[in-house]
Amino acid sequence: MKFAALIRSAALVSAVALLPATTAGLAQVDGRAGPEFAKLFAVYQRIKASYVEPVDDDKLIRGAIDGMLASLDPHSAYLDGGDLQRLETMIDGNYSGLGLSVVMDDGAVKVVSPFKGSPADKMGIKAGDYITHLDGTLVYGGELDDAVAKMRGPAGSSIRLTIFRPGRDEPFDVTVTRGTIDLEPVTSKLEAGNIGYISVNEFSRDVGSDVFAEWQKLKREAGGRMGGLVLDLRQNPGGSLDEAVALSDLFLDKGQIVSQRGRAKGESLVYDAESVFKGDMADGVPLIVLIDAGSASASEIVAGALQDHRRALVMGERSFGKGSVQTLLPLGQTAALKLTTARYYTPSGHSVQEGGIDPDIAVPQLSDPDLAKKDKFRLRESDLRGHLVNEAALKDEDLEKDRKDDPRFTLTAAEVKAKGIEDFQLNYALETLRRTSPNAMARR
C-alpha cells in the first residue's frame, strides 16, 4: 500500500480525523521558545563533539522527536518504517504470524490482546502477558520492530515464546505455530433461545456494515424471532471513531452518540444518531454489551453511548479508560505524527479518560484461573506513565471499586469448568437474556 493511500485510510484505524500539516503551520514557532531551541541545539552540538562514539544525525533527531512526544502522553508518537507497516497491516487485515497485538512497555514486549482464533489465542497467550525471549533470545530492552519481525514468518513455522504472566511465580515457554492471520473484525453465532452473539474484535474499515450484515444473518437463522443480542467488545482496543459512531447508530434512533473537544479549531465536534444508519436495527430486542479492562477507545464510545441512552445493559468489568482522540498528521511522504488533539465525551457529558465505562452489572471472568492474581496487576489508562488526567479529578477509591468482592461470584475457575462453562461472562450475559422479557430489558 502506497503512503498516500495509507494516510487516506488511517482514519479508519486510528480513531482520528486527518488534518493537513501545512508548511506555513510548521514554520510558525512561538518566539518565547527560542531559548529552549537554543538549549536543544547546544545539547546536539555537545553530543556530536564529545560522545564516546560517533552518533548519526538521524539517531539524535529521532531521539529528540521521540522525547518530545513521550513528554506529552502515551498515545502520541512519530510513525515511520515498521510503525507505518503495522498500520498498513491493520488496514489490509492479513499477514503470516502469531496473531498478537503488542506494545513496548518500559522495555518489555507486552501483549495487548491476542486476536480471537489466532495461533497465539489457541495456545493460551493472554492480554497482559510479557514476552521476554523469542527462541531463547532475550528481547527485553530491544526494539519493538525487531521483536515483531521475529514473531512474523511463514505459516507452518514455529517459534518458542518465553512468557512472564503477572501473578505467576515463574516464566514459562509456549511454542506457537505461525498461521495466516486474516483479521476478522466481526464474528457472530446464534445461541440457544434465539439469542444472537456478535463479537467486534477491532474497529477497522466497514465494521458498522459488517455488524449489520451479521445481524441480518442471525435473524434469518432464527426465523425472524430474536430473543436478545450480546455485543461483545471485550479485549477490543478500539480503532476508527467513524466506525464507533456507525456501530452505535445501528441501535439508536435519536440523540447524541459522542462529542469531542479539543483546543485547535475544528477539533470540537458532535456526532449524532441517524447520521449513518436510520432507525434501530434491533428495535425491541434486549441488548447486552460486554466490556472488560481491554475494551478501549472506540469500544468505550459504543458502550458509553448505548449505556447513556439506556439502549443496552453494559456488563463485565470497568473498561480501559482511553478517552482521547489521536489525529494522524502526514510529515512528508514516508512519515506521520500521531498526536492527541481532543478528548471525547459520552452523551451525558462523562469523560471516559482514566475512569473508563463502569458496567451496569460487574461480572468477573471466573473462567480465568489467574483472575485473582491478574487483578493485582491490571493495567489501565490511569496506570500509564504521562496519561492525560481526567478533569473530574477522580479519586483512587473510585477507580478501585470494581475490585471489591461480590458475594454473587464466588465460584473458582475449576468449579466453572466443571459446569461446562468456558466463558463465564458470556454465559452470564446469555442466561440474563434468557431470564428477562424483551419489554423489561429493552428499555429498563
Explain what you see:
This protein is an alpha+beta fold and 444 residues long. The chain folds into 2 domains: 94-182, Roll (Pdz3 Domain), CATH 2.30.42.10; 186-443, 2-enoyl-CoA Hydratase, Chain A, domain 1, CATH 3.90.226.10. It is globular and about 75 Å long. It starts with a helix and ends with a helix. The strands form 4 sheets. Strands 3, 4, 5, 6, 7 and 8 form a 6-stranded antiparallel sheet that branches. It is built from 15 helices and 19 strands.
Outline the fold blueprint.
Elements: H1 3-9, H2 23-27, H3 34-50, H4 57-70, E1 77-80, H5 82-92, E2 94-97, E3 100-105, E4 108-114, H6 119-122, E5 130-134, E6 137-138, H7 144-151, E7 158-164, E8 172-177, E9 179-182, E10 186-191, E11 195-200, H8 207-221, E12 228-232, H9 241-249, E13 256-262, E14 269-272, E15 287-291, H10 298-308, E16 313-316, E17 324-331, E18 335-345, E19 361-362, H11 371-375, H12 396-400, H13 413-418, H14 424-435, H15 438-443
In short:
The protein contains 15 helices and 19 strands. It is of the alpha+beta class and 444 residues long.
Features:
2-enoyl-CoA Hydratase, Chain A, domain 1; globular; 23% strand; 2 domains; alpha+beta; 19 strands; disordered C terminus; 30% helix; six-stranded mixed β-sheet; 444 residues; six-stranded antiparallel β-sheet; Pdz3 Domain
